[in-house]
Write a structure and sequence with these properties.
This protein is mostly helical. It is flat. It has one domain: DksA, coiled-coil domain (Four Helix Bundle (Hemerythrin (Met), subunit A)). Helix content is 70%, strand content 0%. Bound molecules: zinc ion. Zinc ion binds next to helix 4.
Length: 128
């Protein structure tokens, strides 16, 4: 990977991270603010309203959680860029394809290791 490519990836990762932080904070602000858009006749009682709010909060939390995970991956990718091992799979050390990096610049794994990881995660998760 050339110096030029590395600095392009760094720029992309940094702007991605900034956008992620902005969106997380924006969502949290929206959630705290009152929602005046709901017309009175659309209200279906306090109880239903309350459960709807709870559902929205749960959704927001899980969204924020996956955003937080991605932010963490981006920060790790930036650290790898600094250390010079960016673009190498953290599992097997093989170079991650440039095409894959352009698609997901924060990915820590090559496609092969990623697929194995996902298959393992699926087999670990409890069946309902
Ligand atoms: Zn690998």
């Amino acid at each position: 990977m050339t110096q030029r490519q590395r600095s392009d990836f760094r720029k992309r990762l940094e702007s991605e991270l900034a956008a992620l932080y902005r969106s997380v904070h924006g969502e949290v602000r929206d959630e705290i603010a009152p929602r005046p858009l709901l017309a009175d006749e659309e209200r279906v009682g306090d109880e239903a309203d309350e459960s709807q709010r709870t559902q929205q909060r749960d959704l927001l939390l899980s969204l924020a959680e996956s955003d937080a995970r991605r932010a963490q991956m981006i920060e790790q990718a930036l650290r790898r860029l600094t250390h010079g091992d960016y673009g190498e799979c953290v599992e097997c050390g093989a170079p991650i394809g440039l095409g894959r990096l352009k698609l997901i610049p924060w990915t820590p794994r090559c496609l092969e290791c990623q697929e194995r990881e996902e298959a393992e995660a699926r087999s670990r998760s409890p069946t309902m």
